[in-house]
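Changelog-adjacent note: as of this version, every example in the card shows the full chain rather than a window. The one below runs 95 residues end to end.
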Amino acid sequence: MGNNISLEEYKKWNRRLILKEEKRFFLKHFTVYIVVNILLLFILFLHFIDLIDLIIPFFWWGTGVLLHYLWAVHFLEKRLKSNEEEAMNLAKRSK
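Full-length structure tokens:
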């Protein structure tokens, strides 16, 4: 029984694996963001800290989480195509 698959089939499954891994990393980042922000809100209510002291970290870290999503998940297909084209060009030059 052969394990031969086409290049297109390989690319398709490789992309799926990379996307799955990127989503997993993003979900870890997002989960930490939610948990830490809940803890910060708890501290705010316990110690009557100024709300502005928490809004700034929420905003900037939230911006970082959004950028992580855009880079890791949303624009992944473009990055993969670019990497594949670059690999093809390098392979052509090496011949």
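Structural remarks: Helices lie at 7-47, 52-74, 76-94.
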